[in-house]
């Protein structure tokens, strides 16, 4: 299981690095940055569901936690880029 965790977390870090590069690439387009951040939040949400599902410890509390974090990111992005 340790090997799985290393691969899973490496995939998460790689996904966030790709997201950071995408934000940098669209740095002059606030709409593009907003969509990249929403995509990152969705990626994090899906990654968390799959990760805990494979580990066998996916619970309602974890689902709520991942949903809440993704929602906070989406609301913060909207607050920053809507103005």
Automatic annotation (TrEMBL):
TM segment ranges: 7-26, 32-51, 63-82
Origin superkingdom: Bacteria
Keyword vocabulary terms for this entry: Membrane, Transmembrane, Transmembrane helix
Protein known as: Uncharacterized protein
Highest classification ranks of the organism: Bacteria, Candidatus Curtissiibacteriota
């Amino acid at each position: 299981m340790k090997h799985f965790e290393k691969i899973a977390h490496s995939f998460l870090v790689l996904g966030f690095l790709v997201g950071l590069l995408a934000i940098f690439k669209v740095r002059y387009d606030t709409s593009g940055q907003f969509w990249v951040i929403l995509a990152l939040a969705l990626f994090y949400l899906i990654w968390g569901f799959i990760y805990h599902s494979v580990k066998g410890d996916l619970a309602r509390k974890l689902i709520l936690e991942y949903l809440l974090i993704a929602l906070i990111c989406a609301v913060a992005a909207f607050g920053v880029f809507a103005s």
